[in-house]
Amino acid sequence: LSLGAKMGGFTFIKVMMILFNLIIFLSGGTLLGVGIWVTVDEPSFLNIFGALSSSILQVVNVSYVLIAIGAVLLVIGFLGCYGAQKESKCLLMMFFSVVLIIFIAEVAVAVVALVYTGPAEVLLTAVVTPKLKEKYGVDGTFTENWNVTMTKFHCCGLNNYTDFNNSYWYETKHTYPESCFGGLPPLAHPHLCGCLLQGCFKQILENIRTNAGAVGGVAAGIAALEIAAMAVSMYLYCRLDEK
Prior knowledge:
disordered N terminus
């Protein structure tokens, strides 16, 4: 290829790198803003996004996750966009390194999620169950979120109905939440009739497995974009030596 063609190709890839990372930067800013919104006004967020958001809130704190992801995307977008625009080898290498670290972390999380489901359940139990005992029936938003989750997934508690044993709700109502009975009237000792639903963790996990194809496709798409971004940044980094 002639020098002009090479420079034209370099310029095209540079512009695409800038535009791509500008989108990432704006997306990060949006997620950061939504995360702050959830932190400040969670009820409005739930009213707009409905049952799915409430079920997710039982496993992770959405606001902190959105803020963390938004901040990371802002950093990545800035490094990629500004690094390509200024043709800075330092910023391009930083961009490559950050994306590589994220890619490795995602692969590690995927492996852990596939192989170590048991420990994940134990960890969630240690974090979520105490909150159920303390806040269900006390915190209106927390209670409503769990009611929506248990109704949507036809489940009771995180592991099973025993998550409510010795809880504020059971100590004051002397029965388990109505959502735990699958539409049947609440009983004082429902475990004797076997009418209680199973835990939400297994139901949510089964729902994820049912949609594993879509989840895997999205994950593969994100991985492909990350690999492409690393390849482009390294291409620009190496070509700068030739300029």
